Amino acid sequence: MSIAWEKLHSATVTLAGAGPIKQRLFNAYVNHLASLDAEQMPREVRDEFGGLSRALHAVHPLPGEDTVRATIRKMSDGEAKEYAVQIVNLFAAVARAQANPRIGQPAPVVQLYAAEA
User: Fold this and answer.
1) Each residue of 93-108: pLDDT tens digit?
2) What confidence tens digit (pLDDT) does each residue in 74-85 have?
3) 98: CB partners within 8 A, 6+ apart
4) Which residue, among 1, 7, 26, has the nearest Cα to 90 in the 3D structure?
5) Helix-helix angle 3-15:77-99, to 10 degrees
6) CA-to-CA dists, residue 26 to 21, 39, 107, 113, 114, angstroms
7) How far is CA 105 from CA 100, 102, 109, in A?
8) pTM for the whole thing?
9) What does the DSSP assignment read for 57-113?
């Protein structure tokens, strides 16, 4: 199992738990995804993961507050839900990539031979 799968799985379980969506999103990101580097992700989802990370660091924090908490605090519940769905979709994409490691790789070259006449 890859570290990306493990962390995204844990984040998804956190998102499925009880409590307000903003708190679940904060816990999922800070406790499981913040330490994950985009290079640890399958190539086909690196940009999406990088975008998620940048989006969750968008707001300048108040004194004593971190950037992720400030960003999520400023979100509506609907926006928080959209980011939660994005995390679940990233988990699904990584799971598919692990199940079929050939996804995202170029197709093999097949040698074709001309029929002799």
Assistant:
1) 999 888 775 545 544 5
2) 999 999 999 999
3) 1, 2, 5
4) 7
5) 140
6) 8, 22, 39, 58, 60
7) 10, 5, 12
8) 0.82
9) T-SPPPTT--HHHHHHHHS-HHHHHHHHHHHHHHHHHHHHHHH-TTTTSPPPP----
